[in-house]
């Protein structure tokens, strides 16, 4: 008679252990899915940012071939001027720049 009772108790323990194992596996998979969804979201935001950067850089590339841009670079970086153009230099501003350069 004891033998009949042992089987249902053992069966109940095995079922309970299987349920706990299943709950742990499901919990881990939900956690992993949540992590992957957040990674996808982060990567999507990064892609959008990079696309905007690419558009800005492409605009700069397109703009760099215009005569206005070339003139601006020539004036700012190389100090070039147009023929017969008069340049006025403010001595106060130039002395301030000299002071800043000397202090650095």
Q: Report the major sheet.
A: none
Mean pLDDT: 86
Which runs of at least 5 residues are low in confidence (pLDDT < 50)? none
Distance between the termini: 98 Å
Q: How many helices?
A: 3
Helix-strand sequence: HHH
**Alpha carbon gyration radius:** 37 Å
InterPro entries: FtsL/DivIC
Organism: Anaerosphaera aminiphila DSM 21120
Keywords: Cell cycle, Cell division, Coiled coil
GO biological process, one term: cell division
Written description of the protein model:
- One of its GO terms (biological process) is cell division.
- Keywords: Cell cycle, Cell division, Coiled coil.
- By secondary structure, this protein is an all-alpha fold.
- It has one domain (2-103).
- Helix content is 85%, strand content 0%.
- The chain has helices spanning 2-64, 67-78, 91-103.
- The longest helix has 63 residues, at 2-64.
- The mean pLDDT is 86.
From the structure above, extract its key features.
FtsL/DivIC; 104 residues; mainly alpha; cell cycle; coiled coil; cell division; Cell division protein FtsL
